[in-house]
Amino acid sequence: MGSTERIREYLDYKGITKYKFCNDLGFSNKFLDNSSNMGTDKACKILHHYPEINSEWLLTGNGSMIKEDNTNIVIMNNDRKTIDSLHVSQEIPLYDLEAVAGLRELFSSGKPQRVLDTIKIPNLPKCDGAISVTGDSMYPLLKSGDIILYKETEFDNIFFGEMYLLSVKLNDWEEYITVKYVQKSEQGSEFVKLVSQNSHHQPKDIHISKISALALIKASIRINTMM
């Protein structure tokens, strides 16, 4: 089977007419009439227009027609002496962080309209919610687009050296949300040191009064698209 035959198979699978395919990509209406392999330029144009097509399948016939997603789930903070019990089944809300003013508002309200989706993963520690990560401060452990699952907590229950989702007040009306390791500070018990995984981000000591909300990160989810 040549690559043009595989394209016909894909169009049948998606219910796309040959006319629409040729018209959308600017190809001759006779492009799909032969069974030969297409040129690299046309293959690149097709893969750009239909990004879900597995390029290896299109060019060689190997693998699946549609790209597959591979999900990595990592349970965090599971090496301390007190281990959380695992829940066989739970539904964890994935929140839209852009729809709230800060973590404190999200934690206290948990309004349904802020829920983008529900995550169902067996055998995880108890989690209160999940959000998508932005930025690179915890790279490579976390990268932008990863999902973190968290359990709300208070500063009195903190485990130094572990990873937290924090809301840090810059002033009376502005705060920023970040993911950091929380460590003891050399400046005394009223301060903590926020440390990034990424060595390009310098550690920062802040007063504990600046922390308006705190959650221990229980797990992370990364979806890798198989090319």
Automatic annotation (TrEMBL):
Entry-linked InterPro entries: LexA-like, LexA/Signal_pep-like_sf, Peptidase_S24_S26A/B/C
Pfam families tied to this protein: Peptidase_S24
Entry keyword annotation includes Transcription regulation: yes
Keywords: DNA-binding, Transcription, Transcription regulation
Keyword rRNA-binding found: no
Stretches assigned to the Peptidase S24/S26A/S26B/S26C domain: 100-210
Protein name: S24 family peptidase
